[in-house]
Each structure stands twice: as C-alpha cells, then as structure tokens.
Design a protein that fits this description.
about 375 residues; alpha+beta; Immunoglobulin-like; Glutaredoxin; 3 domains; five-stranded mixed β-sheet; 12 strands
Length: about 375
C-alpha cells in the first residue's frame, strides 16, 4: 500500500510539473523562418536565410544549380561561416566576378540545409531566382522558338529583327539541315555600350555575344543600325543552333567550322573580310586549317583573316559536297568524333587534306568571259 501511494505521488508531481505555467519543455523542432534570393544584375545574386531552434544551429549550407545545357546536373555547395546560435540570420552573395558572370534571362535553382547541435536537419524546398537585367523596361515578342526582348524602338523595329532571326533560321536549315531544338532568348540592347554594361569582362569591341550553354544571345543594336544588327543576329543565332545540335561531352567543334557557319549565315562575305582573304591568297600567307581549328588570334588583322578563311572553308564544303554532307558532319561531331575523324568519315579526308583541296579551290583562276562563252557553246552543241 505504501509503494502504491509513493508511485501515485510521483505521477501527480510529474503532471504538476508538466502543466505548471512557470515551466516550459524544450522543443527539438528546427525551423527555417525565411528564405529568399534577389538579383543585383550584373554584379551578383543575394541570398538570405533566417532560422531558429531550441539547440544551437551549427551548420548552414547553400546549394545552387545554374540552368544551362549540360550532361549531368552540377550542384554547387557553399558552406556558410557564422557564429552558432539558436536563432540566426544569414546573407550571402554569389559574386559574378568569381564565376565570369551570367547572361540576362538566366535562372538559378537554390535550396538551403540547416543542422543544429542535436544533429537535427531541415532543408528548404528548391526555389528558382531569375537573373534579369532590371535596369531597362523590357518588351517582348515571341515567334516559334525565339523570344525577343527589347527596350528601345517601336514594335516595327522588333518585328523587323524577328523577321531577320526567322530568315536566318530558314537559311541555316537550307544549307546545313540544322534547326533549333530548344527555345532561345534574344536580348536587344540599344547600343554596344549598354550591352557591355551587362557583362563582367566585356571587350571594348563587343557588339554581340552568344551564351551557347544558356540558349541566350545579347546584341547591341540601335534602331538606326538595322543592317549590321540583322547580320549579327544571324551570326549569333547560328552559334546557338549549331551548339544545340552538336553538344556532346567529348569534343567541341573546330573553330573554323563554328565561325565559318556563323559567317555564312550573315550572307555574302563583306568586302573588308574579302579584302583580307584575297590579300592572303595573293601573298601566299593563308592560315592552315589545323591552326584555324584552335581559338583565333587576338590581333585584329589575323583574326579578320581567320574569319574570312573560315567562311571560305564552309563555302567550299557546301558548294562541293552539298547540304546533306554538312548535316552529316554536324551529327558526327555530336557523337564526339575527333576533328580528323569526322572529316574522314563524311568526306574521306582529314584537316590536312581539306587544307590542300580548299587552297587549290580558292587559288584557281576564275574563267575568263571568253572561256565561259566557249563552255556555253559546247554545252549547247551537246559536247
């Protein structure tokens, strides 16, 4: 009986302690109160987090993933330094100067994991922040797989640029068979200066750039400079299409093919580039195809010649072997083939063989007017 009374007293004491208004029981729940991200274009992305719990928070990590074409998801994990406490507020900035920058219109998925001294852990659901260039009041126009953004100029200005983009896609399909596989974004800045202001490491001559992994291009086009703008759209759009259809984890395109296709999309070779090419032919100082497979020289004259030769190489392959072979070449590169291996599979020669055949093609003299007339007479006579 005494034992039962003692047990009953213990239970009563525990109940009184449990419901006594002067006492609280420790809660083990760890809670994230707030999580957000804001773009500071083009300098960085600012992330904030606040959390609390009954035990000291000892570990906070930010995880983020940039939305771009890749062969496997790549997640970056940032360990945040802070003073452990039961309530914390964190601010951390992804500085674009550290990663080379992100283009306007790109997006970043992010989430947090928080751990306390009791080894309890909580994570936020993944969220997405857009890295938009909010310095300008953008308007948009969509047609097919192209979304065009602009902020200076009227609707007719945008329509003309869109027509140029759609025409460039048709032209590219006609001579290579390549088409857009995914939607792309085109940002039209009002000047080269405005465009350069959107970049972390701009070159002073930058007027247009294709961010091929992001499906984004940005070009500085004033409303009174449409001719140049339309050619540049064709050039940069070609880079986006070609990289979509050839992306692989093993190899990139040779530079002469990538730039040659983009130059060809612009239309006939401009006189300034033709001058560099003709001068090099006359003086016997053409650049080898092997050299043109690597990034071009930073020297203006040599770079101009490299672009001109690349245009001519692509022109030679298309005129001599046709569109189907060019599309086959692009698909072979998509399989991860080497430069020489792709050419040998599709055309039966390597880069040195291409060099010899192309130089013979560009250096052979044009037939005279008399020779052309004789040829027409012979053809008409059935010879």
């Amino acid at each position: 009986m005494i034992k039962k009374a003692g047990f009953l007293a213990l239970v009563i004491c525990l109940l009184l302690a449990l419901f006594s208004p002067g006492l609280t029981w420790a809660q083990s729940e760890l809670v994230i109160l707030d999580s957000s991200a804001q773009a500071d274009f083009p300098q960085g992305l600012n992330f904030t987090l606040s959390a609390e719990g009954s035990a000291e928070i000892t570990d906070i990590r930010l995880h983020y993933r940039v939305d771009r074409m890749s062969f496997a998801p790549v997640t970056s994990e940032i360990y945040i330094e802070f003073v452990p406490a039961t309530a914390v507020s964190i601010n951390w900035t992804l500085e674009m100067i550290r990663i080379g920058g992100l283009p306007p219109g790109s997006s970043v998925e992010y989430w947090w994991t928080v751990t306390d001294a009791k080894d309890d852990r909580v994570a936020t659901a993944p969220a997405t922040v857009l890295f938009n260039d909010s310095r300008y009041a953008w308007q948009s126009l969509t047609e097919g797989k192209i979304i065009l953004y602009w902020y200076q100029g009227d609707e007719a200005f945008a329509q003309e640029l869109m027509a140029a983009a759609q025409g460039a896609l048709e032209h590219l399909k006609d001579y290579t068979g390549a088409e857009l596989e995914k939607p792309v974004k085109l940002y039209i800045y009002a000047s080269a200066r405005d465009l350069q202001g959107s970049m972390i490491y701009p070159q002073e001559w930058t007027g247009g750039v294709a961010f091929t992994r992001y499906g984004i291009m940005a070009i500085g086009i004033a409303p009174d400079n449409l001719d140049w703008g339309e050619r540049t759209i064709a050039h940069e759009l070609t880079h986006l299409v070609i990289h979509q259809v050839t992306l692989n984890p093993y190899n990139n395109l040779p530079t002469w093919l990538d730039e040659g296709l983009a130059m060809h999309s612009e239309g006939p070779l401009e006189p300034v580039f033709a001058g560099y090419l003709n001068g090099a032919i006359a003086e016997g100082r053409l650049i080898s195809v092997q050299s043109l497979a690597s990034p071009f020289s930073a020297y203006a004259g040599e770079a101009a010649l490299s672009y001109a030769q690349s245009y001519s190489l692509v022109e030679f392959l298309i005129m001599s072997y046709g569109q189907e072979r060019m599309f086959e070449l692009l698909n072979t590169f998509r399989e991860g083939s080497t430069y020489d291996g792709a050419l040998e599979k599709v055309y039966g020669f390597d880069m040195d063989g291409l060099d010899a055949l192309w130089q013979q093609w560009v250096t052979q003299p044009e037939p005279s007017v008399l020779e052309k007339e004789i040829e027409l007479v012979l053809v008409g006579a059935g010879y």
